[in-house]
Design goal:
Number of strands: 19
Number of helices: 27
Shape: globular
Largest sheet: 6 strands, antiparallel
Radius of gyration: 23 Å
Strand content: 15-25%
Strand order of the largest sheet: 2-3-1-9-8-10
Distance between the termini: 33 Å
Structural class: alpha+beta
Length: about 575
């Protein structure tokens, strides 16, 4: 298991890779060097096609189709056992970015192409990819990696805490866009090919972006086509000749993936659900009903608050960027259970909400009808407000010094405006879905799943984020996705025959995580020690009086006080793990 790093510099490229913790791999690439890093990941390489070299973490779901396309184009030397990474490189060399667009899978690739270092991230953003520059002009040097820690170790880079990213994290509970919490390190966006040049300049190419297409076919035809795409997406993600795990919450998204896996797989399907024990609300009746209906081998994992407290620091440390999701420790424990059962692949139902219209969109549509102020800025502010995280509390949460430094920083709404303006997406619902897909989908959902499952030697695969499924979703008329107040209507119609009506027609409730109980109980001591401790005080991000007030459950934060404290606690743990000061 490994990840990768790469460097473009006139100053001992292989030595720079080694300084980042990498083991240089053999190439004849001049001022470039590629290396493998210890750590959970799927990196392999080098791959070589002619004078072009690459290293990457690549899993393709449509390798046979891509191999056939290369063969029909007259490409030679494609052995049947050609690795996914080499196959993707061959597609790039033969077709350019069109070859990348034709691929479907999870990948982060670095390509040495003449005097450029070319970085490629998959369509949806399942695998992370970062880059940084040191120096400028003729003395510019580039480094890239799938590991943020690797770039943090790069001696040529003068980095530190990036305060605008702190504000973004407290606003969204993740980091949308290119920014990271480390100054000077940027994330490659999904569906992009970024060319790093020796003179320090960059060229970014978009090889895939979803687009709205008017398709007024009858609802039944859309549902029928979507069903076929869902079956194909699930089948391509099933492992060969081994059992598969499925994370089953009992909602329609995870339930339909479970049902399709049970229908299509020729091996055992094992489903896994979470319980928080005691009197905590749960959906076990629904997940149990689906497991029985689909005849899966079902396991319920109980996650006590004590386990969350004990394992939260190590879980946060797995993530290249923090995610303020209280399900991170339960997700890790589920991954451990799946791995302990000997499986290498676990499917999930992630993607239904950002792709087909989950509960976040209805309040935004109501706002659009009632708002007094026109324009994209007003819409973006409403989108930020709908998150209900710490954005409104920043004036009393952040110290005066931090607020002063942020005074001239671009507003967080700039991260949303490109998606909420009329461009490729004309309808408001599709603009919202596009925003959800390119922000929360790419920078929270997929990357969290990838890092946590990879830590256990697993691949977490999400059929609802399949490229063809997403393309079709933006062909479906908005009225068939949000039908009145019925969310994800077309998705439900496509799988209605697979599941009990109780599952298909019940409203979404979501996983109810007892965050406040944890903070008042097993996490109380850790929270006080971390948030009021010497390290946090020295960093100077948060006002101590506000933190004390929140810990005492004072003020107007209820009933979302626990979630806000969780964000601050997660951020502090991440900064400590990465040893980031002020």
């Amino acid at each position: 298991m490994s990840r990768w790093c790469a460097c473009l510099t006139d100053d001992d490229a292989a030595g720079q890779v080694a300084a980042m913790g990498g083991r240089p791999v053999p190439t004849r690439a001049g001022h470039h060097a590629l290396g493998l890093l210890d750590g959970p990941g799927a990196a392999e390489g080098p791959y070589r096609v002619g004078d072009v070299y690459a290293i990457g973490e690549v899993t393709l779901h449509n390798a046979p189709e891509l191999r056939a396309r290369l063969g029909s184009a007259g490409a030679e030397g494609i052995a049947g056992d050609c690795s996914d990474g080499e196959l993707l490189l061959r597609a790039y060399v033969r077709f350019g970015t069109a070859g990348l667009a034709a691929a479907d899978g999870m990948f982060a690739l670095a390509i040495v192409d003449r005097d450029e270092l070319v970085l490629v991230r998959d369509h949806m953003g399942a695998r992370t990819l970062f880059h940084a520059r040191a120096g400028s002009g003729e003395r510019a040097a580039w480094a890239a990696s799938t590991s943020l820690r690797s770039l943090q170790r790069w001696p040529a880079l003068d980095t530190g805490l990036h305060l605008p990213a702190v504000r973004s994290f407290l606003t969204f509970a993740y980091l949308p866009g290119r920014e990271t919490l480390l100054r000077g390190i940027h994330e490659v966006l999904p569906g992009r090919c970024v060319r790093l040049k020796a003179d320090g300049s960059t060229v970014e190419e978009t090889y895939w972006e979803p687009a709205e297409v008017a398709d007024e076919r009858p609802a039944a035809e859309h549902a029928r086509e979507l069903r076929g795409l869902l079956e194909s997406a699930t089948a391509r993600r099933l492992p060969v000749a081994e059992p598969v795990g499925v994370l089953l919450s009992g909602g329609v998204d995870s339930s339909l993936v479970t049902a399709l896996a049970a229908k299509l797989h020729d091996q055992a399907v094992r489903s896994y659900s979470i319980s928080f024990g005691g009197d905590a609300p749960n959906e076990l009746a629904y997940s149990g009903l689906v497991a029985a209906h689909c005849h899966t081998e079902h396991q319920v994992l109980t996650v006590p608050g004590e386990a969350v407290a004990a394992r939260l620091p190590e879980t946060v440390a797995l993530l290249d960027s923090p995610v303020g999701d209280p399900l991170t420790v339960p997700n890790l424990m589920l991954a451990e259970a799946v791995a302990a059962d000997g499986m290498s692949v676990v499917l999930n139902g992630e993607g239904g909400d950002p792709v087909f219209g989950g509960p976040k969109n209805l309040p935004m549509l109501i706002h659009e009808l009632l708002r007094d102020e026109a324009g994209v800025d007003s819409r973006a502010r409403a989108y930020v407000d709908s998150y209900r995280k710490c954005h409104a509390d920043l004036p009393v949460l952040l110290t005066p010094g931090v607020l002063a430094e942020l005074a001239d920083a671009p507003p967080v709404t700039d991260l949303l405006a490109p998606y909420l303006a009329q461009g490729q997406m004309k309808s408001l619902l599709n603009q919202l879905l596009h925003t959800n897909l390119r922000t929360k989908g790419a920078h929270h959902i997929l990357t969290k799943v990838e890092r946590i499952t990879a830590s256990q030697g697993l691949e977490g695969r999400a059929p609802l984020f399949d490229r063809a499924v997403v393309d079709h979703a933006f062909r479906v008329p908005p009225r068939l996705k949000l039908a009145g107040t019925s969310e994800k209507w077309i998705l439900k119609e496509a799988v209605r025959d697979l599941l009990p009506p109780t599952i298909v027609d019940r409203p979404k409730s979501g996983m109810r995580v007892p965050v406040q109980q944890w903070l008042d109980g097993p996490l109380r001591e850790l929270g006080h020690d971390l948030l009021l401790g010497r390290s946090a005080r020295a960093r100077g991000l948060f006002r101590e009086d506000t933190i004390r007030s929140w810990l005492r459950r004072e003020g107007t934060l209820l009933p979302r006080q626990g979630g806000k404290l969780w964000l601050v606690l997660t951020l502090e743990l991440w900064l400590r793990s990465f040893e980031v000061g002020a």
